[in-house]
Each structure stands twice: as C-alpha cells, then as structure tokens.
Amino acid sequence: MESAKKSMGAAGVFNAIVCLLSIVTFVLYVMNATRAYYVDLNSVIAALLVVAIAAEVIVLALGRGKEGYALAIVSDVLRVAVPCCLAVAGVMFISARVESLAQVFGSNLELGNVEAHEAATQAVAVIVISLVTWLFSVIAAFLGHGKSTK
User: Fold this and answer.
1) pTM score, two decimals?
2) How many CB atoms lie within 10 A of CB 36?
C-alpha cells in the first residue's frame, strides 16, 4: 500500500480523496433528498455529482497509465471540470434548502417536528461535506501530475 501511495504522488492522493468524498456527498445527498420531510431529489444535482465522480475516476485511471499529450489535456480538463460540477451541485443544493433551513432553525413553526430537525441537520452535514469536497477538488486540480512534461 505504501508503494502505491508513493507512485500516486500528492496529486493522486488528493484525487483519490476527492473521489471518495464525492461518493460520500452523493450518498448523503440522496439520503437527504429522499427523507420524509424533503422528498425532492433533483436529477440535475445527482447528475452533476455522478459526472464529478466519473471524471475523478477517469483522472485517477489516466494518472496510472502512460502519459501522452492528448491524455494530459483530457486529464487537465477533467481535473478542472470536477470542481465546477461540485460547485454547481453544491450551490443548487443550498438554494433548494435555504428556505427550509431558515424555517426549521429560525422560527417556531417547526418546533416540535423531529423529522424536520433531523432532515435540516442532515442537510447542513451535506452542505459541509460538499464544501470540503469542493475545497479538496480545487486543491487537487492545481496539483501537478507528478511527472515533468518536456
């Protein structure tokens, strides 16, 4: 395992972390969007997260194989596309939840509704994980391949 980490380099490790965090974000989003309080799974958000996961898997696969000029360009484009997809999905999720979060946490209308508080707390967790995933994806996008291109 240690030799795999060394051969991946910092960029590969960050890309693997982003891939895992993206999967966690997707699972938490689906769990939150299918709760009894919300029940509003947005197919665009789900598609953006799936595209980000697929792009990250492709970046990881390209990083393990032979590097060519065309593959380096594809890898670079995908490494920039991942943070874009994650950012758009995160903003769409926040915009879908901001009103309900204000109602649950800021008023007495949902005071006794346990499901509302659990769903809102889970939504905050999804937002935090989404932001952490996006931050790691931005860092991973700016890290080099680990190989010099001459």
Assistant:
1) 0.85
2) 9
Token pair in block for residue 83: 């943070």
Q: What are the DSSP calls for the chain, one per residue?
A: -HHHHHHHHHHHHHHHHHHHHHHHHHHHHHHHHTSTTT----HHHHHHHHHHHHHHHHHHHHHHS---HHHHHHHHHHHHHHHHHHHHHHHHHHHHHHHHHHHHHHSSTTTT-HHHHHHHHHHHHHHHHHHHHHHHHHHHHHS--SS---
Domain spans of the chain, in order of start: 6-138
Q: Give 44-65 pLDDT, tens digit per residue.
A: 999 999 999 999 999 888 877 6
pLDDT tens digits along 106-119: 988 888 899 999 99
* Closest to 18 measured CA to CA, from 120, 124, 129, 97: 129
How far from 6 is each of 13, 68, 72, 109, CA to CA, in Å? 9, 21, 20, 54
Higher-confidence residue: 3 or 78?
78
